[in-house]
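Structure in, sequence out. Go:
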């Protein structure tokens, strides 16, 4: 296997693994904000219990997402040095803003929530979680702004020797329509995943033999709320998808040929199959949401359905990853569309070193995956009445 393909595989695996945790964080924190709003509006302590129960799981995934993100960033220098040289002047601005604005915002208020949640007033809890939600969404904005340029380059000029891109119009990059299509699509997919993840975790909780009737009723509230948000985001993402696909046809004809099956190459088949899987799953999400809303009492009594729901959170993961394949693989052979080919962006390092780093990344991520599964299951097994998080705040 050549250097380019190895480098692509390593980056795809690293980004794909990192992106298992990012959309969960974005989706779960949004639903925590909904629970906390309902707590503030109604005064019912059950909603606060839901916030803290799912907040414990959010913290685990958020932490692992940070760790895996660091490994992903390093690869721009180790595996994609030529790309970094070519794009560095432009790519640095949105990534710096993401770190200084979005990440600091979300991490600061996440820390406040972790260590002070038991003594906050309801209003301050809600504001804190709302700012955490805003921070995670802003992080996506700046990362996708950079990716949008790679899909549809705007607001730049080439250096005199053609060796690098020079930023000349930051607003053109920020307002790039391709970036905003990707952003809204990604956020909706993350919110959808968050809804289905909460439904799966709730099913796990309801299947526990020692769960009390009161606890079951509170967890059931989470299922009812998340099924409604699942329907909302499923319909919205399907509606946006049609417009997004037409836009792709105007901007990247080669990608559209892959999506429609005109391109019969191996790459074209991969992209076409991924698109079909993503669209099919979109329909399935609507069906799951409608079933849960309409036949909730049947679901509540059915052990079989709960066992099925334990695993449904994997479906939006598949949809997100296949959508990512359509976006990124469909851009090939370009790493920056029309400006730099993928084969020209790799670092000139021995193939043996890439093999070594690929295996190392695989092993490290394997350990992290086992760890996050263990920590998440530990949190799910805990009672939502855990005295450690008893609320002590005022109004």
């Amino acid at each position: 296997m050549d250097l380019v393909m190895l480098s692509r595989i390593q980056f795809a695996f690293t980004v794909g693994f990192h992106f298992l945790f990012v959309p969960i964080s974005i989706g779960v924190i949004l639903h925590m904000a909904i629970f906390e709003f309902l707590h503030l509006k109604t005064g019912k302590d059950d909603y606060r219990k839901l916030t803290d129960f799912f907040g414990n799981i959010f913290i685990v995934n958020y932490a692992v997402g940070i760790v895996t993100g660091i490994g992903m960033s390093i690869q721009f220098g180790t595996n994609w040095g030529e790309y970094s040289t070519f794009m560095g002047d432009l790519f640095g601005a949105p990534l710096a803003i993401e770190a200084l604005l979005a990440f600091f915002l979300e991490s600061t208020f996440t820390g406040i929530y972790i260590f002070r949640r038991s003594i906050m007033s309801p209003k301050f809890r809600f504001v804190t979680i709302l700012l955490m939600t805003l921070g995670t969404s802003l992080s996506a904005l700046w990362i996708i702004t950079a990716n949008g340029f790679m899909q549809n380059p705007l607001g730049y000029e080439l250096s005199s020797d053609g060796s690098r891109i020079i930023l000349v119009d930051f607003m053109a990059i920020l307002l790039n329509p391709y970036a905003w299509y990707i952003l809204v699509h990604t956020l909706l997919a993350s919110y959808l995943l968050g809804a289905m993840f909460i439904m799966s975790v709730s099913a796990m909780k309801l299947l526990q033999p020692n769960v009390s009737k009161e606890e079951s009723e509170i967890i059931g509230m989470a299922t009812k709320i998340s099924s409604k948000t699942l329907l909302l985001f499923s319909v919205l993402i399907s509606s946006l998808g049609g417009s997004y696909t037409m836009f792709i046809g105007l901007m990247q004809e080669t990608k559209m040929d892959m999506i429609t099956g005109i391109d019969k190459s191996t790459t074209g088949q991969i992209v076409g199959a991924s698109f079909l899987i993503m669209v099919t799953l979109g329909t399935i999400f609507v069906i799951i949401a409608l079933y849960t809303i309409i036949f909730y009492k049947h679901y509540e009594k059915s052990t079989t359905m709960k066992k099925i729901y334990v695993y449904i959170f994997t479906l939006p993961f598949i949809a997100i990853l296949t959508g990512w394949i359509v976006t990124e693989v469909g851009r090939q052979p370009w790493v920056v569309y029309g400006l730099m080919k993928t084969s020209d962006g790799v670092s000139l390092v021995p193939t043996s070193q890439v093999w070594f780093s690929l295996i190392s990344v695989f092993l490290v991520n394997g350990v992290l995956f086992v760890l996050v599964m263990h920590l998440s299951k530990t949190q799910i097994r805990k009672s939502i009445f855990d005295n450690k998080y008893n609320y002590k705040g005022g109004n």
